[in-house]
Amino acid sequence: MVAISDFVKIQKNDSCKHLATGMRYPNFVQWSGFVIPEFANIGLLHAGCDEDLALRRELGNYARVRMASSFDVLTLFCASLSESISENVKEVNGTIDVDFLAQCKNATEFLDIVKTLTEKYTDKITFHPFLGIHSDKENNLPLATMLLDSGLFEGIELYGSTYAENPEKFLEIFKMARNMNMKSRICCLGFRTLPDRESIFEIMLNLKPTHLMNPNIAINNDGLRIFKNGTLYPEVCDFIKDHNVHIEFSPAPILSGKKGEQKAQIIRAFAENDISFSLCTEDMLFLNKSISEFATDLCNTGVFSVEEMSQLISDTPSAT
Fold first, then answer.
1. Looking at the domain assignment, is residue 140 inside a domain?
2. In the chain, what is the straight-line distance between the N-terminal and C-terminal CA atoms, in Å?
3. Average of per-residue pLDDT values in the chain
């Protein structure tokens, strides 16, 4: 069995970390000063199902209840970066949701948080700020555009699933990101209900994201013809390579037992096809996995060696 200690000592990179949920539960309790009654239900639901996503949104609201000022927002984000530093992460792409502008007096105060985070830990970690936009909250797009104009962000992240229903609503923000030479990420959660692979390709061609999060969510839908019998369809490999898309895998939606081995095999398929990919923590509060723990789980399935995984997690994330 591979031990976590094999990876803790390695200087690592985390290609996607949501700063609002980037710490473990005990550290969240220390920051907030209270416990979350429903937290024990995390993990009892099938990850990625509607009930699970609703519970996560509800739990995320607890952080906002605790926030009375921009200083509270800053200390929450600092807790996430401190968690990364303690795990010997040296470079991180950290997502800050545009929603947190509501906890600030104005946009300047919000942007000051980004500046502080970028400068505060320069001797310990390199922080690449991404602006997060939930696809259920398209009314935030004008605010996101204003914040991107600051030049402080290095990328955008579109999460949720409803973007797949009306991707045209997000064309301008993705075009803006390209024009500003930013990275852009979408989560594959929206792909799982699409009727066919061509519908996925159409969204990708329109939005032109540089990063794709957790394609294994869509892979579990056999009708999409992405992955079968341990092999990626050649058309999928060609599309990803032709459009220079970087793939990211987090511990979601499940990494334990048979599900863990299945996910490891999917990641191995991307590796064997020379597709650019990296590992990330995404939401440590909910997923409770560091990069070292995620790497250990993958190795203990027997699909990856310690040497392969050590090289993977120490490579620079595709954000610079």
1. yes
2. 35
3. 90
